[in-house]
Amino acid sequence: xxFSDNKKIFIHDIAxxxxxxxLLRLMYHxxxxxxxxxxxxxxxxxxEKLRAVLFPGYFGPVxxxxxxxxxxIGALLDEVFHDLAEQIRRGYCFECADEFKNSCGxxxxxxxxxxxxxxETLPQIRHRLSxxxxxxxEGDPASRxxxxxxxxxxxxxxxxxxxxxxxxxxxxxxxxxxxxxELAHSQTGIDIHPGARIGERFFIDHGTGVVIGETCVIGExxxxxxxxxxxxxxxxxxENGNPIKGIDRHPKVGDNVVIYSxxxxxxxIMIGAGAEIGGNVWITRDVAxxxxxxxxx
Length: 297
Fold this sequence. Notes:
The chain is of the alpha/beta class. The protein folds into 2 domains: 33-188, Orthogonal Bundle (serine acetyltransferase, domain 1); 209-297, UDP N-Acetylglucosamine Acyltransferase, domain 1 (3 Solenoid). 47% of the residues lie in helices and 11% in strands. The longest helix is centred in the first third of the chain and has 32 residues, at 69-100. The chain has a 5-stranded parallel β-sheet with strand order 1-4-7-10-13. The protein has a 5-stranded parallel β-sheet with strand order 3-6-9-12-14.
């Protein structure tokens, strides 16, 4: 009994310390009208359903016939539409609570509109991913088929998530694009910000440790290897000493560029078309079209 009383005092004391206004100011989130945060597990399920829509037979049920494919896809899309709209609504409520201090109204219509817009882009997303898969097959002599690239390669998993997340990012959906990107990051070790603009026929060989920043622009037919960083060199500060958001600070990569493993490319610089960047180099200047950069030892 004495231990039990001491335990109650101990727990009460810690709860008091964890509930002070000073500690809660940045660490406590109160949802609008008690709306829950977007669910990581639900978003993971939504993305997997979208993967099955984009690559039927590779992901999702394998027993369907081609004659019933459109009905299967339609049923999945109906589920995704409603589930995604709910998660987007939660994202808007999160943003309202965090930034607008409960001043926003109902976001149901906006959430459904954004979910509808994402569904409408899926044919274009599938087309881009088909070109990415072909680039992976043609760019890797170890690959035996395009199907192997689709089913096994971390590049395709990361790019599928990214091309979905990027469309939601363009629609200015809060939180959800970053959640989708971080799902791929945790699964593959490839970290692509949803704001990055990536052209067609993009391939990341091996992939672990690749980082692509928010304002990166990558051209067509570009190939990266593991450990490549396309990052920011520095962060300009505002009058309060905080990083200025929304400005270009990441590399721009032209068409037909190859960047080998461990290369670090920083800042709002241009890597010209056809350039070849060797492994383990550090670049903070523009690279001319066709230029070959090698590390010196």
